[in-house]
Amino acid sequence: MAQHSSHHHSPDQHHGLHRYGGGHTHHDAAGLAELLDLDAEVLATYLAAVTGWTRQHAPELPRTVVDLGAGTGAGSLALARRFETAAVVAVDRSAVMLERVRAAAREQGLAGRLRVVQADLDVAWPEVGAVDIAWAASSLHEVADPERVLRDAYAALNPGGLLVVIEMDTLPRFLPDDVGTGRPGLESRCHEALAQADWNRHPDWRPHLEQAGFQIAAQRSFSTEAGQASPGTGRYAQAYLRLIRPALDGRLGAEDLDTLDHLLAEDGPHALLRRRDLAVRGTRTAWAARRP
What we know:
This protein is an alpha/beta fold. The protein has one domain: Vaccinia Virus protein VP39 (Rossmann fold). It contains nine helices and nine strands. The chain has helices at 26-42, 44-57, 74-82, 95-107, 146-156, 186-196, 206-211, 233-248, 254-264; strands at residues 64-68, 87-92, 114-118, 131-137, 157-168, 215-223, 226-227, 279-280, 283-290. The strands form two sheets. A seven-stranded mixed sheet has the order 3-2-1-4-5-9-6. It has a two-stranded antiparallel sheet with strand order 7-8. β2, α4 (95-107) and β3 (114-118) form a beta-alpha-beta unit. α2 crosses α3 and α8 (233-248) runs antiparallel to α9. The longest helix is centred in the N-terminal third of the chain and has 17 residues, at 26-42. The relative contact order is 0.16. This is Class I SAM-dependent methyltransferase.
């Protein structure tokens, strides 16, 4: 959910795999939606692992699971499959994203157990009633006032309820050091430039969760990896690098931008979709926090 904090983000940035918010073009929204879907497809084993870990710390038979900043709903649907007795509520500020969630739920036979709520966490906590599990994947650091959102989540959870917060430790990597054109180290320079633009900046949420009254049940790092053998890897790399490309104008040297454009071309000797040396590499940290 692109809850963009006015105090340190510009309103037209995406920070990693983030939620579509106001001010974006429809094309931009479509590109982000495709990226979120590819993320779920390529990293399906990660989603299964993190929802399995969530189940270990969750109440026994949760009735209501809320996905805060649902995007295209990959997390919502993974949670619906993992918690078969629960109703899942996908919350996002974007009607475009929520329509994707609805369509995916219908395709997967989960429409009867999933509902969507359009809401902006920067305005108010959504009308979702009492909650057993709240899930915020790559969305909490985007809100303007995360302390208030954490207090609201605490108030909404039943006693014994669980909040899971997930963040990317670093932006995902796809490229070998030498891509066969331009200077080696292109991806590292892209990441340095995005770090200067505050992409993916987030704190260690543990003290913030404790300050809101939560007890930390567990914290774990999950690796997100897939090789070129995964059919979506090339498309995932292309969708991701396309999304970050506008943010690199003026931040990356002309030679590097030229190399990036050759990689993003639909065809050509260095095009991402033709390469066999790509791999997704990254880690994400998850905090599981319980309301006593």
